[in-house]
Fold:
Amino acid sequence: MTHRIDLKEFTRSEMEQLMAAWGQPAFRGRQVLKWLYKGVSDFQEMTDVARAFREELALKALIGQLRVEQEQEAADGCRKFLFALPDGNLVESVLIPEEGHHTLCLSTQVGCAQGCRFCLTARRGLVRHLTAGEIVGQVMAVRPIAGDLPLTNLVFMGMGEPLANFAQVVKALTIISAPWGLNFSSRRLTVSTVGLAPMIPRLGLEARANLTVSLNAPDDEIRNRIMPVNRRYPLAELLAACRKFPLPQHRRITFAYVLLKDLNDAPAQARQLARLLTGFRAKINLIPFNSHPKLSFAPPPLERILEFQEILRAANYTVFIRESRGQEIGAACGQLAGERASA
Structure:
């Protein structure tokens, strides 16, 4: 049997080229895309496409859909979805209720190669990249079941390092933000990176999204210990790349800082961080470590966290303490493992 291609892997220009190769006019590609992102699962539902071509599509192509293998809900309303991919691999997304809307935390890889010591996903290593269709598929699977609050915000902060899967992430962002695709506002899309420095300016040139950089230390010595990527791209090189990121007016780069007890949470380190980020239009998110039995770190006590925040605020930074969400179902930052929960 001929291998059928997944039409959700195509941008509009690629779809128009595919239709031309099949002897169809360009507008046929636009018709098909309209139906795909309305959420149809069967070519026969594409009622303004000629019946003969619908039958041809069913032979040559498929409409990829992710299957929810397992869903868990936390007391705070966070819902974690385990998706089965066509090859049997598993990835997770987390739906987070916020005031007036939902945010979805998306995965971009099965596992991760970056090896951050405080992250559970890293313990798996990298299994494979997700395709653009599999990234977009997480949004399409969750949006209809999100409930009363609209799904408006997407954060590429789940399993995997988005900038290590650069081409597919850029394609997914294109589909997600395009009027012919899912039509999300680019102001509500955020890509997080551990610091793959060469890709940071490229992201700003090739896609439209907010940037979050997972910093987690104010110096190379500590960052080397907890984030192996720092040996390749130390802080000076990383921050130079961030300065080259084409930041739209009125936007800021977010620097995420996971607070680890007795390692990176001292007042002197807060002052060092304030000096390090001088000159940036920046927001700082402090993330108390989300504990897990397989990881040896601990979060600092609340008074230590508040002191760290106050030092940065005194240096005129906007600083938020990110509340841990969905921790009891392993849905919090750094806890996604892509495994079935035991019954």
